[in-house]
TrEMBL record:
It comes from Mycolicibacterium litorale. CDD domains: Pat_ExoU_VipD_like. GO terms for molecular function: hydrolase activity. Keywords: Hydrolase, Lipid degradation, Lipid metabolism. The keyword Oxidoreductase does not apply. A motif (DGA/G) lies at residues 192-194. It comes from the Bacteria. Residues 6-205 form the PNPLA domain. This is Membrane protein. A motif (GXGXXG) lies at residues 10-15. A motif (GXSXG) lies at residues 37-41. The active site is at S39, D192.
Amino acid sequence: MNRADLVCEGGGVRGIGLVGAVRALADAGYAFPRVAGSSAGAVVAAMIAALQAAGQPLSRLDELAQKIDYAKFADPTLLTRIPVVGPALSLAANNGLYRGDYLESLLTDLLGDLGVRTFGDLRTGEEPQRNAWSLVVTASDLSRRRLVRIPWDLPNYGLDPDEFPVARAVRASSAVPFAFEPVEVSGATWVDGGLLSNFPVQLFDSTDDRPRWPTFGIRLSARAGRAPTHRIRGPLSLAFGALETLISDQDAAYIDDPCTVRRTIFVPTESVGSLDFDITDEERDALYGRGLRAAEEFLASWDYPRYLRDCRGIATEV
């Protein structure tokens, strides 16, 4: 069996593309000792970690993903339901149009059925701390203005990492500002991890002379080229457009690095918006298929010894 750490980019409902890519990697014999993600990437990463902890095949990820009803993500607050003025009132009072309860409840059930409730259930038994858990998700702490790497940074909030609910962490990582209510943790306000790092592919990188295995990244976008044009309709559309522009650009310094590109699977998903909760079955299938094909194409050209030589300066035996 091949091993690789895996980092999944955020992207709302476009995360279906991640599931297709993971399926292709699993079919090729890969297992993932450590997985990480932001937002939708955190959702997929959590399900991967739980399946592996339960000794279940990663092919079951398809089954779990099918249980997600994307229309229910838009669980409006009571104020949002008020005609015309409701959304504005909800933003002012609750800092979000939707509660985010559906996602946390769904993950609590799905992960719980696999025996995973807290990060303590995902202990690896390894040291140092960066190897101690099989899952890391990111959130953005607006109060301290920093990226939170859960569970690594939980002691900084006076919390025991092993007691913190995985579903709560993923909810915080997925709390898109303006769309979903923030998550309050120890007096701090946490929102979507993508706000500060939507593709933390460097999370597991080490300075070891020779890494034990590679880290793969999955991005929910095509390779660099002409970007698609999205129409802006009204103030809320403008706010979300500004937010997505910020999220898509904040990791540019290392995303465009040739060695990062070499270890990244690019899944073209631009035809679907991250908050398109009314996505059709046909669109879901198309996203899944794009992820599957993108990973298959990546594996056809992946050369780990060459990557080590060119990107890490590590000579390998011929």
